[in-house]
Amino acid sequence: MKTYNYSNLSKAAIADLVQRNVDPANEIRSVVEEIINNVQQHGDKALIDYAKRFDKVELDKLYLGKEELAELASTLANDQKAALRTAYDNIYKFHSTQVKTEDKVETMPGVTCWREARPVEKVGLYIPGGSAVLPSTFLMLGIPARIAGCHEIVVCSPPQKSGKVNAFIAYVAELLDIDRIYLAGGAQAIAAMAYGTESITKVDKIFGPGNQFVTKAKTIIQSTTTTAIDMPAGPSEVLVIADETANPSFIAADLLAQAEHGIDSQSILVATSADIIAQAIAEVEKQVSVLPRAEIAAQAIAHSYAVLVKELDEAMQFSNVYAPEHLILATENWQQITGKIINAGSVFLGNLTPESVGDYASGTNHTLPTSAYARAYSGVSVDSFVKKITFQHISPEGIQNIGPTVEVLAEMEGLHAHKNAVSVRLGIQ
Ligand SMILES: NC(=O)c1ccc[n+]([C@@H]2O[C@H](COP(=O)([O-])OP(=O)(O)OC[C@H]3O[C@@H](n4cnc5c(N)ncnc54)[C@H](O)[C@@H]3O)[C@@H](O)[C@H]2O)c1
Ligand SMILES: N[C@H](CO)Cc1c[nH]c[nH+]1
Ligand SMILES: [Zn+2]
């Protein structure tokens, strides 16, 4: 892991340093565009062909139904079921507080405005399953979809070598009362949910994280179809801000936790102490060697780095430019700097708060914007699954109060039909 000194970095150098997962030669785009076209033209057959090519599985059927899922789910050990149930309960508890009825506002006497939430009717959930199967992601997407009251929930996940999904995914399907999972992964699953195939319904909005192929497919279909997406939620990343109070062994563990997701993950350490940086890097080298996914984590660490800053304020400046998916404040004095956070997906406060708790079970959502999209997007929540529709009502008193203003404004814009729609109600022609 290379170390940079913040004082020696120009603005341009920082801009360069914070870039990740760019596709300068459009290599990923062209692969993904071909996949999307193929699914559009050949539907289910293309999905079966891609399962053979990418997942090395010959599918005779594109989905698992309720009975097959129940059979798989029954193989779980009790402690596994209990852990998934606890995660479900905490995530449910946190997300159910996001449902709020907004107040009606009387902007002028007789002029009443308000918003009401309505669920997105048909949603598609993508559950990654390439290098690791993520039942936790199924909980993170399925729970807010259920709370929002979405009418139809389509679920896609890459087939495993067994030609099925794994048992943990099947158990989560049971918890969420989902009775079908389509065995489709990658860009082809996203295309299928955006265009529809013989067996997969076209959805209104697609949710879920994934690798660079999945994320590129989501951004393409968002601009070429009427299907929306939650956000670009690509390869995982973490930025740890540390001062002298941090524990190098904890820092290393947190850096590796995101690095083990994939070779294109990134883990950044920004610290006020050169000693802490040196000790944390030594710890990373020690801890990585014993990980089952050591090779993946080591490759991600190879393109990760550390930044030495003079003070926590400087660390926060760098972090706000990086806009990390996960931000860990590894300092006892985190209260002093939280107010300065501008761009981050999800924040973990203090030396005893590992990022992994948010990945699995604290209650917050782990589907979060990556690649600096935290500058503009929030992570998934119940809000992501609803539209907020505005309503207004004008009473006889209200039309007298607001009418003349609208007449003048319409006149200013030269839109006389607009003016007339008010005038006829005021009784003035
Ligand atoms: N940002 C978030 O909120 C968040 C949350 C969880 C996971 N993640 C990320 O999700 C990703 C999951 O990636 P994954 O690969 O394990 O699973 P995945 O399900 O995203 O992708 C697997 C699929 O990718 C396709 N694929 C693989 N190689 C391909 C190629 N050469 N060309 C075309 N398609 C190809 C295959 O169809 C395969 O089924 C990781 O990067 C992880 O960090 C992000
Ligand atoms: N860290 C991932 C989001 O970037 C979420 C996850 C799922 N399982 C473990 N971690
Ligand atoms: Zn994770």
Provide structural commentary:
The protein has 429 residues and is of the alpha/beta class. It is built from 15 helices and 15 strands. The chain has 3 domains: 2-21 and 235-359, Rossmann fold, CATH 3.40.50; 27-232 and 382-386, Rossmann fold (3-Layer(aba) Sandwich); 395-426, no CATH class. It has helices spanning 11-17, 27-54, 66-73, 78-96, 135-148, 167-176, 186-195, 212-224, 248-259, 274-288, 294-302, 312-322, 355-360, 396-412, 416-426, and strands at 2-5, 63-65, 105-108, 111-119, 122-126, 152-156, 180-182, 205-207, 228-229, 237-242, 266-271, 305-308, 326-330, 346-349, 386-394. Helix 9 (248-259) crosses helix 10 (274-288), helix 9 (248-259) packs across helix 11 (294-302) and helix 14 (396-412) packs antiparallel against helix 15 (416-426). The longest helix has 28 residues, at 27-54. The radius of gyration is 25 Å and the shape is globular. Bound molecules: nicotinamide-adenine-dinucleotide (NAD), L-histidinol (HSO) and zinc ion. Zinc ion binds next to helix 9.
State which percent range the strand residues make up.
15-25%
Number of helices: 15
CATH-derived architecture of the largest domain: 3-Layer(aba) Sandwich
The major sheet is characterized as: 6 strands, parallel
Determine the N-to-C terminus distance.
75 Å
**Please, what is the average pLDDT?**
97
**CATH homologous superfamily caption of the largest domain:** Nitrogenase molybdenum iron protein domain
- Main sheet strand line-up: 1-12-11-10-13-14
Q: What is the number of beta strands?
A: 15
Shape: globular
